[in-house]
Amino acid sequence: MSPIPRQPPSWPNSHVQYINTPRYHPSVLGPMRIFLIGGTNSAPQKTSTSFPSTSPVRIRRISEPSHPARGQNGLFAFRKIPSRSHIIDYIGEVHCQNRADSDYDLSLFRSQDGDNVGVDASAMGNEARFVNDYRGIRGKPNAVFVENRTPQGELRISIWSSTDPIKKGDEILVSYGKSWWRSRTAQFTDTIPDST
Ligand SMILES: C[S@@+](CC[C@H](N)C(=O)[O-])C[C@H]1O[C@@H](n2cnc3c(N)ncnc32)[C@H](O)[C@@H]1O
């Protein structure tokens, strides 16, 4: 059994378990798991930017009255982050289930056979699960979700900075996509830009 990792600062003292290595749910069957991990001999790798090593981000509770996610948490730059650079991997439970009710479930891979693999950070995850959507906060995202493989070959979703550097203290903001918002609430659809 792997040791329990040390929680990063401001990790909510709640039901959410902090992990810095993906957990594979039993719904991810052998061949798919080998494909995702990148070979038979590999094991899930600790993310290189997890606390306390070199993480460039911190979790912060949002108190600004104008912020649409006030009272919740967000992800903020702990130091200046260069443009087009890796910020953090999105770590969670890798699964092949329908988890439409989760607000923390990202699509990792869709096979031609119709298998959908997701990364769900609702019950367990790392700092990346606190990244908010830019809508109502700033004009455009300053970060993007990118699918990539680790140097050891494991398929991951990561958060990367966009074309501009991110200043220390700025909130890291991505686009969840129009369909994400549409599936949750009709109130956002009028303001969602076509391109995102
Ligand atoms: C992946 S979580 C992001 C982290 C979340 N703020 C938290 O503290 O756990 C997604 C949830 O954050 C909130 N959220 C994120 N971006 C938002 C935005 N632009 N406007 C309103 N709520 C937002 C919504 O409640 C959404 O369901």
TrEMBL record:
It comes from the Eukaryota. Residues 55-177 form the SET domain. InterPro entries: SET_dom, SET_dom_sf. Pfam families: SET. This is SET domain-containing protein.
